């Protein structure tokens, strides 16, 4: 293994979203009560090993949720972008 390891990832997943409201909550907007969704994540990152035990991981992820049914909007797709960094210690 090398000290720096770039990577890419992708896949297909499943989400079930359920909205639960209590009588005391105000109406938050045009939302359906629940929805089953397919999600398509993809991204890239790099992991690095610093010294003998420390690790650093930086990644970016994009998720497309086509045919969204939880929100009532003109566009039926949800796009989500996430950037994350992790620092760890390996025993």
What distinguishing features does this structure have?
91 residues, mainly beta, 5-stranded antiparallel beta sheet, elongated
Structure described in brief:
By secondary structure, the chain is mainly β.
SSE order and pairing:
Elements: E1 4-10, E2 13-18, E3 34-50, E4 54-65, E5 78-89
Tell me what the structure shows.
This protein has 91 residues and is mainly β. It is built from no helices and five strands. It has strands at 4-10, 13-18, 34-50, 54-65, 78-89. Strands 1, 2, 3, 4 and 5 form a five-stranded antiparallel β-sheet that branches. Strand 3 and strand 4 form a beta hairpin.
Cα-atom Rg, whole angstroms? 19 Å
Low-pLDDT sequence parts: none
Indicate the overall shape: elongated
Number of H/I helices: 0
Mean pLDDT: 82
Query: How many strand units?
Result: 5
How much β-strand is present in the residues? over 45%
Q: Indicate the percent of residues in helices.
A: under 10%
The string of secondary-structure elements, in order, is EEEEE
Estimated structural class:
mainly beta
**Whole-Å distance between the termini?**
17 Å
Major sheet, described briefly?
5 strands, antiparallel
């Amino acid at each position: 293994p090398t000290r720096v390891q770039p990577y890419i990832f992708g896949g297909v997943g499943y989400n079930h979203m359920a909205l639960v409201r209590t009588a005391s909550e105000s109406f938050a907007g045009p939302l359906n009560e629940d929805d089953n969704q397919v999600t398509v994540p993809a991204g890239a990152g790099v992991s690095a090993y610093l010294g003998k035990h420390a690790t650093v991981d930086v990644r970016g992820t994009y998720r497309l949720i086509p045919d969204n049914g939880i929100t009532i909007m003109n566009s039926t797709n949800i796009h989500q972008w996430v950037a994350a960094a992790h620092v760890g210690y390996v025993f």
